[in-house]
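Incident review: delayed structure delivery

Summary: a single-chain prediction request sat in the queue longer than the usual turnaround. Root cause was a stuck worker, restarted by the on-call engineer. No data loss occurred. The affected request and its eventual output are reproduced below so the record is complete for anyone auditing the incident later.

Affected input:
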Amino acid sequence: MLMYLVVLLSAFIAVFLLGVNSKMMRDDRIVWAMIISWFICAAQYGLTWAIVFADLSVTEYMIFSGAGGSLGIGASQPFYNWLAGLKSAK
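Output delivered after worker restart:
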């Protein structure tokens, strides 16, 4: 059960950060994009670790990583809009 959570959260974080990073690059926030890339790398390491050590079937991995990834990309848009709203309010 713990490995399902590791896969789900790693996928969520990786895809969430990829979505935010895409917006950062679009808006020419290069330094922030470079910083976020380090966290993307860490989340992808978590996914790779889970593939090697979790002993999940392909189906289990696809279900939990797919769910985490879709939730992550869905959450990145409102988060970035909120973040951009904070910056424009100053």
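Verification: Residues 2-89 form one domain.
Action items: add queue-age alerting; document worker restart procedure.
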